[in-house]
Amino acid sequence: MSDINQNPAKNLGIFSVLDAATEIKFFLLAVAFVLWVDNVFLYFHQPAILELMSNSALQNASLSFKLIFILVAFSFMTSIVLPVFCRLANELYLQFLWNGVEKIFGFDQRNYETPSDYVYAHELQKAAHVAKDKFLIDIYNAYEKVKFERERSINKIASLALCNLFLLCINYFHYGQGNTVSRSLLTYSGSSQLIWFCIAGLLLLVFIRFHIDDRQLVFCPGLYQDLDEKKKQNFPQTEPMEQIRNSIF
After folding, report:
1. What is the 3-state secondary structure (H, E, C) of the chain?
2. Is pLDDT above 70 for 62?
3. Segment 76-116, tens digit of pLDDT
4. TM spans, by residue (predicted)?
5. Residue 84: which domain range?
6. How far from the centroid of its chain's Cα atoms is residue 109's Cα?
7. For residues 229 and 45, what is the distance between their CA atoms, to the nearest angstrom?
8. How much is the pLDDT for 2?
9. Which of 47, 147, 202, 232 is the most exposed place for a label (fewest CB within 10 A)?
10. CB distance 108 to 210 below 8 Å
11. In sequence order, what are the residues at sequence separation of 6 or more whose Cβ sits closer than 8 angstroms to the Cβ of residue 241?
C-alpha cells in the first residue's frame, strides 16, 4: 500500500519539475548556474565543466567541498548581490539611456489613445469604492492580482537575464581562451555572432520591460459607458478624453 501511495506523489513531483522546466526563468536560472560553476572551476584552476564531462579520469576527482562552496556562493549571489546590482542597473538605465532608446526606436511616438471599453485602473478603483459596487471591486482586485503576478514574473526574468549576461561576459571575455561553455559555442558555431546574439538577447530581456506600454487599463464596458455619458453631458465632443477624465476624477 505504501508503494501505491508514494508513486502518485513521485509522479506529481516529476510533472512539477517538467512544468517548471518549460518556464523561461527556470531555463535562465539553470544556465546561470552552469556558467557560475564553469567560472568558479576555472578560478580555482580546476577542469572546466566540459572537460569533466569528456575526460573519464577527471570525473572521479574530489570536488565535493568546492561544489558546496559554489552552491552557497551562488545562492548568496542570486538572493543578495543580484537584486542590488539589478536595482543599480535599472536606475542607471532609466537615468542615462531610457530617453535615448525611446527616441531611437520611436517608442515616444506611440499612440496612447484609450481603447474602447477600457478604463484606467485608478478610475475603476475610485468608482468601485464610491459606489460600493462589489462587482467593480472584484474586477479591480482581480486586476491587481494579475498585475502583481505579471510584474513579479517580468522582474524575475529580467534579474536572471542580467545574471546570465554578467556570467556570460566573464565566461567569454575573461576565460574565453580555455575550454569554456562560451568557447565551445564559438567553436561549434564557427563565429562569434552567436555569442553577441546571446548578449543582445539578454540585454533585451533585462531592459525591454521599461519600454512596454504600462498604462493600467482594465476591461470594463459598463464603467466606460458611464464615463462616456458624463463626457457627452458635461463637455464638448471635441475635448480630449484624457482631459475629461482628469476633470471627472
Report:
1. CHHHHHHHHHHHHHHHHHHHHCCHHHHHHHHHHHHHHHHHHHHCCCCCHHHHHHCCCCCCCCCHHHHHHHHHHHHHHHHHHHHHHHHHHHHHHHHHCHHHHHHHCCHHHCCCCCCCCEEEHHHHHHHHHHHCCHHHHHHHHHHHHHHHHHHHHHHHHHHHHHHHHHHHHHHHHHCCCCCCHHHHHHHHHCCCHHHHHHHHHHHHHHHHHHHCCCCCEEECHHHHHHHHHHHHHHCCCCCCHHHHHHHHC
2. no
3. 888 888 889 999 999 999 999 999 999 998 888 777 777 88
4. 65-86, 157-174, 194-212
5. 2-248
6. 25
7. 73
8. 44
9. 232
10. no
11. 113, 114, 231
Encode pLDDT of 212-237 as tens digits: 888 889 999 999 998 888 888 776 55
- To the nearest whole number, what is the mean pLDDT of the chain? 83
**Whole-number pLDDT of residue 121:** 94
Instruction: Give yes or no for a contact between 162 and 86, defined as CB atoms under 8 angstroms apart.
Output: yes
What would the grid cell of residue 63 be? 570536488
Q: Which amino acid is at 197?
A: F
Q: Measured between alpha carbons, how far is 231 from 249 in angstroms, rounded to an integer?
A: 12
Task: Tell me the residue type at 97.
Answer: L
How far apart, in whole angstroms, are the C-alpha atoms of residue 180 and residue 103? 38
Nearest to 224 by CA among 112, 141, 127, 131: 127
Contact yes or no for 179/50 (Cβ under 8 A): yes
Cα–Cα–Cα angle for 30, 64, 43, nearest 5°?
65
